[in-house]
What does this fold into?
Amino acid sequence: MKTSELIQYLDAYLEINKIPDASQNGLQVEGKVEVKKLGVAVDACQDSIAAAVAAGVDLLLVHHGLFWDKPVRLVGSEFRRVQALIANGINLYTAHLPLDWHPQVGNNAVLARKLGFEPATGFGASGAADGRCIGCIAEAQTSIALAPFLKLLASVLHADVRADLFGTHQIKRIAIVTGGGAFLLPHVLCAGVDAYITGEPKHSYFHFTKENKLNVIYGGHYETETFGVLALAEHLQQKFQLPFEFFHFPTGL
Ligand SMILES: [Zn+2]
It folds into this structure.
């Protein structure tokens, strides 16, 4: 399909401009005018770009792109990433918060459903004019004990999790903000949830968690953010018969 048509579809489906974001979301680097194969990755790092070149993809879709709020100089590793994309005609499309928030293919909603919870309301104000949130509060039909819940989470994430457990032993209502959501912990206090799942831990919140008797589970910034790009790629494969490859470069963080 035409790259311009795919970009137009993605911008509309993800409502790319509706959520304030430090990431420059949308098409970041222009490449071939025709897309026959997609690549998806969490990070627009050199490894993902090299894998995209080797796999012959025409558009690489990532969660963490190359361009954020501050301008970067195209020198060193920044230059090499852009050079490899341009030399191989690969389009780079980035969806950061729009792919956290999204009710169907967003990191938070997909992770919640994989755990058997249904997103009920938003969690974590984004600053969007319409009040949409970054993450979600999700509920299960029946409560699940903490130990099997942790086992389930580790198996869904394919990784060990760090669990700071000072709260209830029965889990029915959870808040999720994938990636770097530790800064939202003060808001978890008034959210009335049994556990909070985010990606990356922050030392300064350990005692806060303990003293406020919360359950906070850190599933890894990388691992919790693989769901959105994969769900989006599956959606595009179904809708436009575009084959895709997932380039997996975990950071352990
Ligand atoms: Zn992230």
User: Anything to note?
Assistant: The longest helix spans residues 227-240.
